[in-house]
UniProtKB/TrEMBL annotation:
PANTHER family: CHROMATE REDUCTASE, NAD(P)H-DEPENDENT FMN REDUCTASE LOT6. Gene3D superfamilies: 3.40.50.360. GO terms for molecular function: FMN binding; oxidoreductase activity. It holds the Pfam family FMN_red. One of its GO terms (cellular component) is cytosol. It comes from the Bacteria. Residues 1-148 form the NADPH-dependent FMN reductase-like domain. This is NAD(P)H-dependent oxidoreductase.
Length: 183
């Protein structure tokens, strides 16, 4: 099974990117996880650009999401919502004729230095994913609170968090299998 990961932060020292980088080694047997290119590679959505032709980066990410068995989104919370760059990427993907997000088994996780762990961004993201008919797993949820104490030098070091994320990935593997069996 092949899953792809979209990260909502574009900064080098991102806690969320560190969480995303930990996923391949925490994945259950039989699951390969690859990171998608940065959302910063996509221009701000513009209908005129779309009319002239989809940017290569948009088409490339769309093709990879379409081909993958599942999508994982790892994002920070900005002002109680998702970062604009992530929303922009989802807006672009929603415009592709191939509809890469439609019925795609999707997993959300977030990390934040706050005690909320990015929960509010997750619920806004769920709302956006309804519009594109992505099939998002409800539970278990992973919100890595006080993430700066659990990630050291870009590595997810906190064992409790690693275990919990691993359990979510196992649950998601079951969710994806069930979705595939139903089609
Ligand atoms: C934040 N941050 C933040 N954190 C949070 O838990 N809730 C919030 O509403 C916000 N709002 C917010 C807005 C803006 C514009 C910035 C830049 C930051 C803090 C944020 O969680 C923190 O900077 C994270 O470290 C960002 O994620 P990465 O880049 O480390 O993955």
């Amino acid at each position: 099974m092949n899953w792809v990961v979209l990260v909502g932060s574009v900064r080098k020292g991102s806690l969320n990117a560190a969480l995303a980088r930990a996923l391949p080694e925490l994945a259950p047997d039989g699951v390969k996880i690859d990171l998608l290119p940065s959302v910063a590679d996509m221009p701000i959505y513009d209908g005129d650009i779309e009319t002239a032709g989809f940017p290569g980066q948009v088409s490339a990410v769309g093709d990879r999401v379409k081909a993958a068995d599942a999508l994982v989104i790892v994002t920070p919370e900005y002002n109680y919502s998702v970062p604009g760059g992530l929303k922009n990427a989802l807006d672009w993907l929603s415009r592709l004729k191939t509809q890469p997000l439609k019925t795609k088994p999707t997993l959300i996780m977030s990390a934040s230095p706050s005690t909320m762990g990015g929960a509010r961004a997750q619920y806004h993201l769920r709302q956006v994913l309804v519009a594109v008919d992505a099939h998002v797993m409800n539970v278990p949820e992973v919100m890595v609170a006080q993430a700066h104490t659990k990630i050291t030098d870009g590595v997810l070091t906190d064992q409790g968090t690693r275990d919990f994320v691993g359990k979510q990935l196992v649950a998601f593997q079951g969710f994806v299998k069930k979705a595939q069996a139903a089609t």
